[in-house]
Amino acid sequence: MSNGEQDRKRIVVGVDGSRLSIEALWKARRLAAVLGCSLEVVTVWEYSISLAPPVPSDVWSPQTQAERTLKEAVGEAFGEDIPPDLKQTPLVGLPVELLIEASRGAEMLVVGNRGRGGFAGLLLGSVSSTLAAHAHCPVLIVHRGESA
Fold this sequence. Notes:
This protein is an alpha/beta fold. Helices cover 38% and strands 19% of the residues.
């Protein structure tokens, strides 16, 4: 990686495969183009061993699921027009903690206001509200139907 690529500002987008996270990715792409930033798409798959039935790792793994979710989200958002400098980061762990860490050194963190879980009537989900309070950069929270 050249110094120019290392020094280039980046926008981090948290995606979970939900419609709102795809909208957040669309909006982040436009912002990255306007601001001259690279784009990093982060998917965090949370896996609780205590709640999950035993599944052989050659059949399913949280890392494979994170990679699949990321690939599908990027495909849906960009189709064949994937930005050449797009960084895709699949992670396994606690979404809030890992997205806060991913925000370190970023120009902006972009997420949807609601993910896959929780109560649809709430204005903000627990992940997005915690990120807004603790991220290391400004956070853009995309709401359903916002023009991108």
